[in-house]
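Ticket #261: bound-state structure for zinc ion.
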Amino acid sequence: MAEGDTILRAARRIEAALGGQVLSVTSGNDRGRAAGVERLDGRRLDSVDTHGKHLLLRFDDRVLHSHLGMSGSWHLYRRGEPWRKPRSAAWVALAGEDAEAAQLGGPTLRLLWAGQLRRDRVLARLGPDVLASGFDLEGAVRAFRASSERELGDALLDQRLVAGIGNIFKSEACHAAEVNPWRRIGDLADTDLRRTLEAARNLMQESIANGRPSPNVYQRAGAPCPVCGSRVEARGQGDANRRTWWCPCCQGPGKPLRRAS
Ligand SMILES: [Zn+2]
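RESOLUTION: The complex was predicted; output attached.
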């Protein structure tokens, strides 16, 4: 699943392979053509930026905005290398001198004017990027503080509070910080929030440097916690009922408000 670490790694690889080059831009299917991506054909890719899980490819006064959601992916190939998926699966294919990058699937691919970015309804509301070099930790803590009624695990997925964390690092960060994801923000100390956000950032940075670490709790319901040996628990959380994994021993006190039915 693509979280901020996946997107930042993809951005760096695409920029290294294609940045500064005039690209051939095509689409393999109606979805990409509907987004008008072929208007970028023959333009130079100036830079590739990220904000949380959003990828922004800048071509002079145009920006290609990509979000992979739960199922999309970016592939990078050498020119002429066989693809692992049919070319018709590519919403967009960006071909440079030696390499080709393609987005396959995902909920979002759209072409914007650079001037639209600041007032874009989704992008303008994003919270501080947890992986940004100057991550505003205190700003993020203040934003969480203002959502005092929400449970921590639910709030960590709200991209308006902090951008980049998805379901894996939500669960893993709470476990690393020994904070219970079911506790209301209003019942947590600032130090708990700081520790959790720093854990998310550290785990995601480690993932970028060395690949995704083996999870301690994510998708390990019923298995022993690697720290204390207690059984990892899991339950859906928040309005979207996203699953949260936690160790009731390392991360106590705090219980789910609702029992499983
Ligand atoms: Zn434990």
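RESOLUTION NOTES: The chain has a mean pLDDT of 94.
TICKET STATUS: resolved
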